[in-house]
């Protein structure tokens, strides 16, 4: 028992994978944020320069990328609130697995209307 | 009952003190509380960011034409309102500080050599400072109706030129 190669209470379980996903989405969001501030800074160059770069955000491939970005942000946001509950709420640790299902449920509830609306914009609905 | 651990648990690298190949990681009485404040900042900024980011995404991607409406005139219209200037300024600073601290933690976790950690963090802090200052400068010096620009590209409140 408790052999590290067989997994433990944490390792290979919900806690670890939610943490892995939190890190990966966090890094992805950070690098997008760097690019996003730089592209927005083009409003100080000229209206034409800004509009030219924004036009690339409107093609369908980038539209799917935006959907992926929002999916990452929504997960990171709700799982972040779950981490706060685990840290500060008395029952947080005991209910961490249930809270993760709550995160996934909220993610689905937010993503379905978002995807319907955003993808209909992107694909010219 | 204690359980046998196969792997040794390492000292947190954020406070890893190494001199001439010898590690001096003894507990000191005057420990800095920086890491505690960083931990608290992640939680407090996180709650605020959920509101700021969701509001930002809703107004820019959900309302009206969504991503198709975003152009120079759209930004001009938003930043003519101090409410959105403050919203975006808070969003910029909190998101960049939250993200920078997150990447700092990841560097401490995965970069094993202290010189690698040092230079990665120098790169991170320089890039972050540049982006925060650039973004702040843009929000405060943005001109929605630049002289000589094509009026059809500008916000509707700009005088015809």
Automatic annotation (TrEMBL), chain A:
It is found in: Membrane. The chain crosses the membrane at residues 20-38, 67-86, 98-116. Keywords: Heme, Iron, Membrane, Metal-binding, Transmembrane, Transmembrane helix. Its cofactor is heme. Its main location: membrane. PANTHER family: SUCCINATE DEHYDROGENASE 2 MEMBRANE SUBUNIT SDHC, SUCCINATE DEHYDROGENASE HYDROPHOBIC MEMBRANE ANCHOR SUBUNIT. Belongs to the cytochrome b560 family. This is Succinate dehydrogenase, cytochrome b556 subunit.
UniProtKB/TrEMBL annotation, chain B:
Keywords: Heme, Iron, Membrane, Metal-binding, Transmembrane, Transmembrane helix. It holds the Pfam family Sdh_cyt. The chain crosses the membrane at residues 36-59, 79-97, 118-142. The keyword Transmembrane helix applies. It is found in: Membrane. Its main location: membrane. This is Succinate dehydrogenase hydrophobic membrane anchor subunit. It comes from Kocuria salsicia.
